[in-house]
């Protein structure tokens, strides 16, 4: 009986040893699996951080682009004004001159007086040549006595006159 118990103990100890080896083997496999999962998580975290950086850079780029668009919009308004001045050919409209005054002095002489009064330096710098001057047809109500505009057709220098008028901001 003692031998029988000894033999059973030996069998149980062998089973326990086998079980321990299996547990150790499974434990090392679990450690490897955990390490793989940890590495995967680190890779995912780095991707997330990179994506967040890209999103942040996109936001900055959008802000910069909006600022540049505003700047371009201002520049295009100025260039649109210049184009509009050029498209209207070489005509300048004089507003607010009482009716009949151009008959006494002539529309060309009236324009030259206005230029000499408001832009004496410009008058000295360039030779202003008026090709044609006339009153515009009355587009407003005939019942209301508003003076018609005088339209001056010039050869080339309209841009310089308009630029000088904008700088001065008030012409009499």
From TrEMBL:
The parts of the chain that form a coiled coil are 9-54
Q: Which GO BP terms, alphabetically?
A: retrotransposition
Q: Which InterPro entries match?
A: L1_RRM_dom, Transposase_22
| Domain of life according to the entry | Eukaryota
Q: Name one GO molecular function term.
A: single-stranded RNA binding
The regions listed as transmembrane in this protein's record are: none
Domain named L1 transposable element RRM: residues: 90-172
Q: Which GO terms describe its cellular component?
A: ribonucleoprotein complex
Q: Which UniProt keywords apply?
A: Coiled coil
Query: Its family?
Result: Belongs to the transposase 22 family.
* PANTHER family (alphabetical): L1 TRANSPOSABLE ELEMENT-RELATED (PTHR11505)
Please report the name of this protein according to its UniProt entry: L1 transposable element RRM domain-containing protein
Which organism does this record belong to? Equus caballus
């Amino acid at each position: 009986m003692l031998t029988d118990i000894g033999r059973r103990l030996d069998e149980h100890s062998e089973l326990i040893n086998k079980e321990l080896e299996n547990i150790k083997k499974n434990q090392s496999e679990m450690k490897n699996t955990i390490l793989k999962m940890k590495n995967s998580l680190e890779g995912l975290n780095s991707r997330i951080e990179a994506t967040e950086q890209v999103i942040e850079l996109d936001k900055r780029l959008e802000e910069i682009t909006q600022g540049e668009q505003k700047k371009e919009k201002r520049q295009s308004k100025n260039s649109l004004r210049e184009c509009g001045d050029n498209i209207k050919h070489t005509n300048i409209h004089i507003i607010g001159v009482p009716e009949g005054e151009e008959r006494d002095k002539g529309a060309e002489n009236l324009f030259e007086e206005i230029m000499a009064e408001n832009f004496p330096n410009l008058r000295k710098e360039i030779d202003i040549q008026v090709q044609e001057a006339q009153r515009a047809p009355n587009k407003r109500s005939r019942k209301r006595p508003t003076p018609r505009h005088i339209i001056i057709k010039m050869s080339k220098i309209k841009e310089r006159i308009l630029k000088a008028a904008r700088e001065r901001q008030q012409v009499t």
